Amino acid sequence: MKTKNLLYILSFSVLLFACSSSSSDDLSNPDPDPIEKVTYKDNVKAIIDSNCLNCHGNPTNGPSNSLNTYDLVKNDVDKIIDRINRTGAGKMPPSGNLSNSAKALIQQWKDDGLLEE
Ligand code: HEC
Where are the alpha helices (DSSP H) in 29-67? Predict the structure, then answer.
């Protein structure tokens, strides 16, 4: 009789633990999307640095606009979104295209309010 009671208590606590641990996961991470807000420092800078700065550095190597600071990228965001979504004349970068996820991140950055960090 005592062993049976102990078993009940044991299985009940296992259940309780399983439930409480999964609900605390939900609380600590209510949004399954790993990126909450897109920022220049965390997300955008790396894309620009590796795909654009060999021409759009300061000084530039052909184009008239540098894209090597937060302010410059922010001021040009509409032109940038236009150019990276083109497939023909004037597309940026001139050879190839950014990945869809990189394009989406830059659009998301604008939608989130062009945060610096
Ligand atoms: C191989 C060199 C090169 C690379 C790499 C490059 N660009 Fe350009 N970009 C140019 C040149 C040259 C121009 C000027 C001619 C034109 O407007 O198409 C230009 C023009 C632009 C313009 C228009 C500027 C204006 O004032 O009208 C934008 C915006 C732009 N690039 C964004 C980008 C972005 C964003 C990237 C990276 C994803 C990039 N470019 C990568 C060479 C490059």
Answer: 45-51, 53-56
Ordered by start, the domain boundaries in the chain are 1-30, 40-111
Whether ligand 1 lies within 6 angstroms of the CB of 42 is answered as no
Average pLDDT over residues 9-25: 56
How does the average pLDDT of the chain come out, rounded?
Answer: 86
Measure the CA dihedral 64/69/71/74, to 10°. Answer: 80
Q: Under a CB-based contact definition with an 8 Å cutoff, are residues 55 and 61 in contact? A: yes
Report pTM: 0.78
Question: In this structure, what token pair is assigned to residue 25?
Answer: 């996961």
Question: What span, in angstroms and rounded, lies between the C-alpha atoms of 104 and 43?
Answer: 11
Nearest protein Cα to ligand 1, atom 32: 80
**For ligand 1, is residue 45 a contact (CB within 6 Å)?**
no
